[in-house]
Amino acid sequence: MVIESSEPFIKIKNVFYTHWNQETPTLKDLSLEIQPNTINVLVGPGGSGKSTLCSLFNGEIPHLLGGKLEGTVFVGGQNTNDLAVKNISQLVGHMLQDPESMFATLYVEDEIAFGPENLLIDAQEIKTSVNSLLELIQLQPQRNNLVWNLSGGQIQKLGLAVILAMHPKMVVLDEPTANLDPSATRSVHELILELRNQGMTILLVTRELDDFILSAADQLLVLDEGKIIANGNVQQVLKEFGSEMLTRLGIWLPETVEIGIALRDRFKVNLDRIPITVQETLHVLNQENLLRINLKLEQERSANRTLLPLSNPLISARNLEFTYNNGFKALNDVSFDIFPGEMLAIVGRNGAGKSTLAKLMVGLLKPQIGNLSLFDKPAAKWKVESLSEKIALVFQNPEHQFLTDTAFDEIAYSLLSRGVDDPNEVRKQVEDWMTRLDLLDFQKIHPFALSAGKKRRLGVATMLVCNPVVLLVDEPTYGQDKEMTQNLMALMESIRKLGVTVVMITHDMRLVQEYASRVLVMADGKILYEGEPSNLFCSEELLESANLRPTLLQELLKQYEDEGGCVCCSISTTDDFLNALEYSLASEDQYVN
Q1: How confident is the model at residue 205 (pLDDT cuts 50, 70, 90)?
Q2: Is residue 591 predicted with pLDDT exceeding 50?
Q3: Preceding amide of 313 cis, omega within 30
Q4: Total structural domains in the chain?
Q5: Are residues 205 and 66 in the same domain?
Q6: pTM beyond cutoff 0.85
Q7: 184 CB contacts (<8 Å, ≥6 apart)?
Q8: 85 vs 54, 110, 257, 369, CA distance in Å?
Q9: Alpha helices of 217-329 — where are they, by DSSP H?
């Protein structure tokens, strides 16, 4: 519940903001209030202005980013126009969508200490704070590591610690759980709850709305085309705008919420509140006598999930080991095969060795112990340039592979580097891929100026334009809203049907559940499991060992069966569940309007 206050901590009124290099405003007549000591969750489709809005709170707009700002922004009762950025930073800390761009030093512990040192905080107090935060983010062993040697998930954790070290009254977290494994994501959300309980104000911008943080939130804000179209307590917004959020806006909501809204809209169930947790969903199903039905589908959805007949593997590893110069053993006795035309997911906790494995497969690293065969040739005999014609890697951070000054040129460079120099052919292929990935309107924009989601899609385009045999994508859907995720995965599925093998390194268990034909689970440099996703979700011990969590849908199905129901079909999406419920009701003549 929102804590009442005579004065909101944040008050934004009638704000218009136009970026310095644009003609139309990104934020349009935007007004909102945030009360102190509350958790506020901001969601919206890609390109709706979420990151721009975040930059209002700590004075980046207008003091650092320029552009044209109209309207008023009050923080702690003070107009940000009248405050220096260094003073606002002690009121509001902002963790950027790309935390690496925040870093100013070389080493992990120095990065956490940097902000407090600039505020002239006592040295012993800084030391105590650094130790405490390293423990909190579980990076004690990496305290003396170079920041650029951290994994993507570790960079996210360090970015959060850097902000907390300044002891602000409010923190703005722009996608803080991107690249974090599911258990680490839950830990961050639990930390957010604890910070609120300690008196801090939180604004969380997230694509990963889970049941925990949604249940704990005091206010849900929905942004679309630069305007707040809905705000208020979570139940109010879900009841009034939930359907629109799922359909028109393409916002990711927990699977339980998707099911709850469908029960109301499609099954005409009268709901006092939209269920958020698994238990709340089971309660609704029980009340409507829907809990002990034998679920079955009229037609099993199998075409996309059936494994192709196994042929000779494209990539084969036996007893691989790899140790970095600092002594960290990233891979330990790793063996696996990757076959033509499959969609393979590689999952596991942060630091499990997934990115190291990817670098070995594309030739950026060479095996130290064991055998790695790439396209019928030992990895050691491949040159990176030749190997890149067979296997393409989209980095976890796409910025690390951008080379040119415009999005158009970035894709064109991939063609030019392979000898495609006919200007008409280059333009045709570039525009084709930009159209497929909804980037055509941004072809003249510098790659670094794109949103995180557009950078990800641009990185995918630069690789797909080269027609690889294997496409390896590190966190393919990072920064994507629901609609673009579905479009991107439909594209992946279409190229898979053409014979391209897709390997995705991901923490998104919904992605694994809905799309992967096979999954490799890694922990501590070892492969714990290799097989079908359905078997992974059945093993609580395996999930725990790899810092993974079942999806809400999988939790619901398990408890559905525990309550006496029977799941007689393969269910991997909420649509599967709802279709099975509808078909089973109709076939048993139990459906009541």
Answers
A1: very high
A2: no
A3: no
A4: 3
A5: yes
A6: yes
A7: 153, 157, 177, 349, 350, 547
A8: 14, 22, 40, 52
A9: 234-246, 255-265, 278-287
Q: Residue 286: phi, psi to the nearest 5?
A: -70, -45
pLDDT at 546 > cutoff 70: yes
Average pLDDT for 341-353: 90
With a CB cutoff of 8 Å and minimum separation 6, the contacts of 360 are: 320, 322, 331, 366, 367, 372, 379
Mean pLDDT for the chain?
89
Both tokens of 46, joined, read 């890609």
Q: Are residues 530 and 571 in the same domain?
A: no
Residue 162 carries which side chain, given as an amino acid letter? Answer: V
Q: What is the pLDDT of residue 37?
A: 95
Give the pair of three-digit tokens for residue 416: 């030019």
Q: Both 40 and 175 in a single domain?
A: yes
Q: Distance between CA atoms of 49 and 16, rounded to whole angstroms?
A: 11
Do 177 and 108 belong to one domain? Answer: yes
Cα–Cα distances (Å) from 454 to 100, 400, 446, 460, in that order, read: 18, 14, 11, 10
Burial annotation 392-401 (CB, 10 A radius, 16+ → b, else e):
bbbbbbbbeb
SS3 of 106-125: CEHHHHHHHHHHHCCCCHHH
Distance CA 343, CA 472 (A): 10
Assess whether 267 and 349 both reside in one domain. Answer: no
Closest CA relative to residue 520, chosen from 456, 572, 482, 472: 472
Residue 400: inside a domain, yes or no? yes
- Of 288-297, 473-482, 508-517, 567-576, the range with the lowest mean pLDDT is 473-482
Instruction: Answer yes or no: do 382 and 530 share one domain.
Output: yes
Tokens at residue 562, please?
């525990």
Residue with tokens 């790659």, as numbered in its chain:
447
* Residues contacting 169, CB < 8 A, separation 6+: 9, 36, 76, 91, 92, 200, 201
**Phi-psi category of residue 120: left, alpha or beta, with phi > 0 → left and psi -120 to 50 → alpha:** left
Q: In this predicted model, which residue has the larger pLDDT, 352 or 344?
A: 344
pLDDT tens across 150-162, in order?
877 788 889 889 9
Q: What is the 3-state secondary structure (H, E, C) of 321-382?
A: EEECCCCCEEEEEEEEEECCCCEEEEEECCCCCHHHHHHHHCCCCCCCEEEEEECCEEHHHC
Strands (E), 403-517: 470-474, 501-505
Instruction: Tell me whether residue 328 is exposed, middle or buried, using C-beta atoms within 10 angstroms of its C-beta: 0 to 12, 13 to 18, 19 or more.
Output: middle
Do 380 and 520 fall into the same domain?
A: yes
Q: Which two tokens stand for residue 118?
A: 């600039």
Give the mean model confidence (pLDDT) for residues 350-370. Answer: 91
* 100 shares its domain with 206: yes
Closest to 193 measured CA to CA, from 218, 161, 176:
218
527 phi and psi angles, rounded to 5 deg:
-95, 120
φ and ψ at residue 372, rounded to 5 degrees = -130, 115
Q: Report whether 307 contacts 496 (CB < 8 A).
A: no
pLDDT range class, residue 301, cuts 50, 70, 90: low
Residue 474's pLDDT is 87
Q: What is the CATH number of the domain that holds 450?
A: 3.40.50.300
Q: How many CB atoms lie within 10 A of CB 82?
A: 8
**DSSP per-residue letters across 523-571:** ETTEEEEEE-HHHHHT-HHHHHHTT----HHHHHHHHHHHTT-EE-S--
Name the residue range of residue 146's domain.
10-240
Record the tokens describing residue 216, joined without a space.
């704990």
Whether residue 449 has pLDDT greater than 80 = yes
CA distance 268 to 288: 11
